[in-house]
Amino acid sequence: MNEEIPAAETLDKPQPPADESSIRGFQWWRRTFQYNTGIGLTGTEKDQYENDYKYVLQRKQCNECYQYRDWLLKYSPTVIFMAQQIARLNTSSDSTKESNGSEYKFDESKIICDVCPEWRSGGFHPELGILLCQNRIRDKWHLEDTLAHEMVHYYDNTRWSVDWLNLRHHACSEIRASSLSGECRFMQEFARRGLGFKVSNGHQECVRRRATLSVMGNPSCKDQKHAEKIVSEVWDSCFSDTRPFEEIYR
C-alpha cells in the first residue's frame, strides 16, 4: 500500500488533564503500583517512596495517639483519677493550681507520643515524664492501659522518689503498675493468651510475668532467674499496696 503519511499538524493532539490534582493522583497511584510490584522503580526512587510513606504513617500515628491521649484525660475514670493524684503530690512542677485554690491540674505536656524502636507500648522517665509509643498502640483501649500503667510509675516516683536502678524499687513499681492499670484484667489476658490463659490466679500470674519481663530490661538485672527472684522478694508487700486506689481494678 502506498498511503501518504499525514502532516503532523493535521493529527489530533492529546488533551491536557482537567486539573493538576488528576496528575498528582495518577502519579501517586503509579508510584504505589511500582513500589508494590518493583516494576520500573529505581533503587533511589524506592528509598524515597519508603521515606515518604513512613513520614505519612508516622504523622497519622502521632495524631491518633494525641487524640486518644486527650480523650482519655477527659473521659477515662482511671486516667483522670491518676492525673488528679499525681497533680496533688507534685503541685510545684508537674501541675498548676486552679484559680479557686482547691483543685490541681495535671500537666498533660508530660505525656508525649513518639516512635519507639523497641517492642514496647510506653515508658516512664523520672525527669521527662511519660512516653506513649505511637507505632505500637493498637487502639484507644490499649493506650488507656498503657497510659494508666505509666501513670502508676509516675505516681510512685513522685511519692517515694524511686531509685530505678534498684531492682527491688523497680520490681515493686512494676508489680503495682501491672496490677492497678487494668492491663491484667480477665479479657485483656484472655485476648493475649487465648486458651493458654488460666482463670484461677490469672491476674496474679499476669502481673508476675509482666513485672519479671520489665525487670529483666533493667541494666542491674543479670537474667530471668534474677528478675524472678527480685519480684518474689517484694511480691507480698507490693501486690497488696493498691494506693492510690482502694482496690485492684479488674
UniProtKB/TrEMBL annotation:
<keyword id="KW-0472">Membrane</keyword>
<dbReference type="GO" id="GO:0005743">
    <property type="term" value="C:mitochondrial inner membrane"/>
</dbReference>
<keyword id="KW-0645">Protease</keyword>
<dbReference type="GO" id="GO:0033615">
    <property type="term" value="P:mitochondrial proton-transporting ATP synthase complex assembly"/>
</dbReference>
<dbReference type="GO" id="GO:0046872">
    <property type="term" value="F:metal ion binding"/>
</dbReference>
<keyword id="KW-0999">Mitochondrion inner membrane</keyword>
<comment type="similarity">
    <text>Belongs to the peptidase M76 family.</text>
</comment>
<dbReference type="Pfam" id="PF09768">
    <property type="entry name" value="Peptidase_M76"/>
</dbReference>
<protein>
    <recommendedName>
        <fullName>Mitochondrial inner membrane protease ATP23</fullName>
        <ecNumber>3.4.24.-</ecNumber>
    </recommendedName>
</protein>
<dbReference type="InterPro" id="IPR019165">
    <property type="entry name" value="Peptidase_M76_ATP23"/>
</dbReference>
<keyword id="KW-0378">Hydrolase</keyword>
<keyword id="KW-0482">Metalloprotease</keyword>
<comment type="function">
    <text>Has a dual role in the assembly of mitochondrial ATPase.</text>
</comment>
<dbReference type="GO" id="GO:0034982">
    <property type="term" value="P:mitochondrial protein processing"/>
</dbReference>
<dbReference type="GO" id="GO:0004222">
    <property type="term" value="F:metalloendopeptidase activity"/>
</dbReference>
<keyword id="KW-0479">Metal-binding</keyword>
<feature type="region of interest" description="Disordered">
    <location>
        <begin position="1"/>
        <end position="21"/>
    </location>
</feature>
<keyword id="KW-0496">Mitochondrion</keyword>
